[in-house]
Amino acid sequence: MPAPVRFELLGVDTRSNARRGLLRTPHGTVETPVFMPVGTQATVKGVVPELLRACGSQMLLANTYHLALRPGEEVVRSLGGLHRFMAWDGPILTDSGGFQAFSLSDRATLTESGVAFRSHLDGSLLDLTPERAIAIQEALGADVAMVLDHCPALPAGKEAVAEATERTIRWARRCQRARTRDDQAVFGILQGGSHADLRSECAERLVEIGFDGYAIGGVSVGESPEEIRKALEVSTPHLPAHQARYLMGVGRPQDVLDAIAAGVDMFDCVLPTRNGRNATCLTRRGPVRMRNAAHKADPRPIEDGCDCPACSRFSRGYIRHLFLADEMLGPILASVHNLAFLHRLVRDAREAIGEGRYDRFRAEALEALGP
């Protein structure tokens, strides 16, 4: 089966493992490292596609579980597929629903067959097997689909993590056998917690199965930044250099910078839009709380030097007013700025990698961001 998504490695920083590349997809080419905004239900909350483009978005993520429940993958297919449905003509990645087995564990029953969910909407049953997860994503028509994986809840002993890792590998084989589209990539997902032997074995066996790219799963589920770094250190050396590497669910600027240094190419997280809706804006000097009284008559933009649609037209004083007045434009502008901030961060990282100065760039950025 020909590879519908191809990763081209342009270079590696000589003083770190940071990489710069191109991810070529049926809906366009993405420069990496790349941050992907999360559009769980076929929308990045409050941000229309034109604004996503204006703030630098290249590729979006949508959610298999939520779209299967509402409106249903066949509705999306009948309306032209996910790209036309959400009016986004760029690349899209869909996760498999495996994370919902973790985050909605009170509504999920996990067996060797798959995950049986009781819908959070109406209590109806969604039986999500590896085969069903692929079928839903094929109906949605994303450029990149993810295998169904088992992400164990933390804290978990090594035996429980090993069991989840073995199940993830078995499910990955079933997902690979279930593929029918030759225009959609499928990425495998590494599990194994912070255990180097489990991570390395999982990587080797997934590479034997043969996927179009590989994701590092089982992070951003309650562990510390140090544990995230450890998981990266024991994962990336075992992944093919010529294929894309995706760290799932990570968007804190400090964690993104560390992961790029470890050789990761792709990221996604709800952090920028969730923080934006809660009046917290990301800046290179750390977060700014837009409800603070200090901004009441502040004529400055959220961040000096930012050319995003929020900063180029509106003041801190105005955006604070929007939040205090419960006007929906406040969360929209803050979300747009936060997305633009992360896109600019990875864009600057790409430039630093190309010039062989990523270590210095990262150190300066981390110092400015603060603890």
From TrEMBL:
Binding site for substrate: D95, S96, G97, G98, F99, D149, Q191, G218
GO cellular component: cytosol
Keywords (A to Z) from UniProt: Glycosyltransferase, Metal-binding, Queuosine biosynthesis, Transferase, tRNA processing, Zinc
Residues the record marks as active site: D95 (proton acceptor), D268 (nucleophile)
Cofactor(s) named in the record: Zn(2+)
GO terms for biological process, alphabetical: tRNA queuosine(34) biosynthetic process
Keyword Transcription: no
Domain tRNA-guanine(15) transglycosylase-like residues, every copy: 17-368
Reactions performed catalytically: 7-aminomethyl-7-carbaguanine + guanosine(34) in tRNA = 7-aminomethyl-7-carbaguanosine(34) in tRNA + guanine
Family from the record: Belongs to the queuine tRNA-ribosyltransferase family.
Protein name per UniProt: Queuine tRNA-ribosyltransferase
Protein's organism: Tautonia sociabilis
Source lineage: Bacteria, Pseudomonadati, Planctomycetota, Planctomycetia, Isosphaerales
Gene name linked to the record: tgt
